[in-house]
Hints:
Elements: H1 21-39, H2 45-52, H3 56-59, H4 61-81, H5 86-105, H6 110-137, H7 144-173, H8 176-180, H9 183-196, H10 209-230, H11 245-253, H12 258-263, H13 269-296, H14 302-309, H15 311-330, H16 332-350, H17 359-386, H18 393-422, H19 428-449, H20 459-467
Amino acid sequence: MTHQGSGTEQPGHMALGEDRWPLVAVAGVLAFMAMLDMNIVNVALVDIADGLHVSAATAQWAALGYQLPVVALLLPAGRWLDGVGMRSALLVCTAGFGLCSALAAAAPWMAWLIAARLAQGAFGAALFVLMPVLAMRSVRPELRGRAMSVPATLGPLGAVTGPAVGGLLLDHFGWHAVFLVKLPFCLLALAVAWRVMPRDARLRRPERRSAVDALLVASGVAALLLPLTLAADEPARLGLALAAIPPLWWWLSRSGGRPVTGVLRVSGLFRAHGAVLALAAGFAAMHYVVALHLQRDDGVSATTTGLVVLAFPLGMGVAGPFGGRLADRYGARPVAAAGAALTAAGLLLLVPLGDGWSPWDVAWRLALAGVGMGLNGGPIQALVMSAAPPDRTATVGSTVQFARSLGFTLGPALATAVSGLTGPGNGNGVHAGLALAAAAACLAVPLVALPGRPPAPLPEQTTDAACA
Length: 468
């Protein structure tokens, strides 16, 4: 049985009525801004360390302080947002995100900056969940593919353009500008949402158990990632990843995890989430390996490397709007599967390249993979969100964003691990990293192309009732 979230609105949710494209644009702007913040700070870490007189390791928390709360709070935020008014949540979270950006820019010492970034990550987690829900609820079901393509395309574009934008701001205005650049986006989103969205229910405070759920998820993800990053020097450390099982198992057995697994029993959602994770991991691993190899092994300049890597987001940006239109006309699943197949083809073509890579050889393959990601992004998001039960759209939105964020984080870590295992010094590590990226993309094709088996009648409602 497939649930359609187009009609009945549950208590705590607002009905947006007929096609409100300004709100779709707001979802795209927020997606770009939130993903931009995942990478833009990385280029400013050295300047932050010098400006605030701290070590480079301490300065890393300017980035980690945002990334960790985003990953840890995505799933609890989805459960919370299912029971509150969307307008109130959007206004509060966007204003909080912008305020924390201003506080980070004004930080006189490192503890201030870390606190501001931790708070910003909490607001960012809620915004990540709100984006697909807002886009889905702003248009009629037959236009959902086009609407979902806006945040699905602009989000990854923000991630890949972050370093370039950050470097430009750093050279001309200093590290403070890296945080201030998000303020115009926040103000624009606030103005549109205030005018267009009708008033709805007030916010309620998150439950205390959400803090425990966030801690368990963060502990499990950290326990998984740390051994992967250390395995390049000592492969035996991969065994430490087993430490991720206890906290994640505990979370799944708690009242915070059971509703999430229950809602994912809706037909096709488990496989679609696996496809989202696999494509994100393949993209992130490819981006990491290509940029590192061009500069370190082939001696290509940083500027040329940046231009080559930009072929991927350019292809994605061009194809993204077409993916949404095709999904609305021919169905989300076949278009998403075709996009995944094109991405896999582009990454597979990178694997046999020898040591003498030319920028053009890499660029056109990246552009092909980017076209595939553009065709896939909106349709797969529409596929998942349309199958969500009407009263659990925020929960499903959080699981999609969690799968994507986990893939972006796992990709470079897995590439580092396989590179170390195969010997990075002789070129085998580069080919192994690219093979890993291509394999992940290939795995996504059957995951999204084949629909899941129908679940037992309404298991997620029984689960939620038991956990309420």
